[in-house]
């Protein structure tokens, strides 16, 4: 069912702020939902994120999607970033499972091209108990094959919050995979702010924020930066927990998002919210918050009472949750210190991202 909230799209923002939209009732509804939420870009699932196989789109639905993009002025090549299914794992050492992933992945890419969508966000998966380098090679060879079998869609690898065998928790993994891609015009990276912080890259202060992007440019290169996922983090730095929080309420805080809204290198690419909300109104308000942050000049912030108050209010809202996660993190660290020599546990692929919140949506929304 299309969203009923109504926010006006900004015509002056230099950034493509948007959010993950529901495509319930038909993929073309994601476009109208995005428009009604005030999105300048948006994401959606191409099919059910819970099932391996979903019915193909009808030609009528494809036409409707394209028509909606035209009507509401979204360029599907640059403004739409569908999210792949979480269980796709092209790095899986179990060949049969990797093949099954590839099938679903190819189906996603074909859907993108049917819709005329130019970007596709993928979790790079997990090498599980396999040899990390060998499995990265397998991932890259699947990506090369998929690129040859499709025409134009760019595969955008998302960085991850975990450790070790979860591919993309380290920027170096992404660099290595990109290095093995034959057609480099068809590969990119999406930086998720929550994943980045949870993986241990601090971005919470001005200095740390600038250092991270410098490191990103040194290791991967800005030319590969194709999108950003915007989430605050419920868990502290390096906790390896993928727990999205509403902007300003987590360990990142509002100033990180103000810096995002002032980073020239983020202009022109989709910047997509995946914060936990039960309806699109929350996203609409956060896009307005981002546009407000864009209007705030850095020099006068401390004197800006409205800004200081906003920061305080949001931090207060998230205080209880931050404390809970900090306590859990400290317990885990103590255990880790006690058992540091024990064998590393394997990390399962994929996080819960927006899937859990889409589940919540289902409970509150009629489809
Ligand atoms: Zn994300
Ligand atoms: Zn994701």
TrEMBL record:
Keywords: DNA damage, DNA repair, Hydrolase, Lyase, Metal-binding, Zinc. It comes from the Eukaryota. GO terms for cellular component: mitochondrion; nucleus. Residues 34-290 form the Xylose isomerase-like TIM barrel domain. This is Apurinic-apyrimidinic endonuclease 1. HAMAP family: Nfo (MF_00152). The keyword Hydrolase applies. InterPro entries: AP_endonuc_2 (IPR001719), AP_endonuc_F2_Zn_BS (IPR018246), Xyl_isomerase-like_sf (IPR036237), Xyl_isomerase-like_TIM-brl (IPR013022). Residues 319-367 are annotated as: Disordered. Belongs to the AP endonuclease 2 family. Residues 321-332 have a biased composition (Basic and acidic residues). Its cofactor is Zn(2+). GO terms for molecular function: DNA binding; DNA-(apurinic or apyrimidinic site) endonuclease activity; lyase activity; phosphoric diester hydrolase activity; zinc ion binding. Residues 333-344 have a biased composition (Basic residues). GO terms for biological process: base-excision repair.
């Amino acid at each position: 069912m299309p969203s009923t909230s109504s926010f006006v799209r900004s015509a002056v923002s230099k950034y493509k702020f948007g959010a993950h939209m529901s495509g319930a009732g038909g993929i073309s509804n994601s476009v109208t939902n995005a428009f009604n939420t005030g999105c300048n870009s948006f994401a959606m699932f191409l099919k059910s994120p819970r099932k391996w196989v979903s019915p193909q789109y009808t030609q009528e639905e494809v036409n409707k999607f394209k028509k909606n993009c035209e009507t509401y002025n979204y360029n599907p090549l640059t403004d739409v970033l569908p999210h792949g299914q979480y269980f796709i794992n092209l790095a899986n050492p179990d060949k049969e499972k990797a093949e099954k992933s590839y099938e679903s992945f190819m189906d996603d890419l074909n859907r993108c091209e049917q819709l005329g969508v130019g970007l596709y966000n993928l979790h790079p998966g997990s090498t599980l108990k396999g040899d990390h380098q060998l499995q990265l090679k397998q991932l890259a060879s699947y990506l090369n094959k998929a690129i040859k079998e499709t025409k134009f869609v760019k595969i955008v690898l998302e960085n991850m919050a975990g450790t070790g065998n979860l591919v993309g928790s380290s920027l170096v993994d992404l660099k290595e995979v990109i290095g093995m891609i034959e057609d480099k015009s068809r590969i990119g990276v999406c930086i998720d702010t929550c994943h980045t912080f949870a993986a241990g890259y601090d971005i919470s202060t001005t200095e740390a924020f600038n250092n991270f992007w410098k490191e990103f440019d040194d290791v991967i290169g800005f030319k590969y930066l194709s999108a950003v996922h915007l989430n605050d983090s419920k868990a502290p730095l390096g906790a390896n927990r993928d727990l999205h929080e509403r902007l300003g309420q987590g360990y990142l805080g509002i100033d990180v998002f103000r810096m995002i809204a002032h980073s020239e290198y983020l202009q022109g690419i989709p910047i997509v919210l995946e914060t936990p909300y039960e309806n699109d109104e929350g996203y609409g308000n956060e896009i307005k918050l981002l546009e407000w942050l864009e209007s705030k000049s850095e020099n006068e912030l401390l004197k800006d009472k409205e800004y200081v108050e906003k920061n305080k209010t949001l931090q207060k809202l998230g205080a209880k949750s931050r404390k809970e996660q900090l306590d859990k993190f400290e317990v885990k660290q103590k255990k880790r210190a006690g058992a540091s020599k024990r064998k590393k546990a394997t990390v399962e692929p994929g996080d819960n991202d927006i899937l859990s919140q889409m589940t919540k949506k289902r409970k509150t929304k009629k489809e």
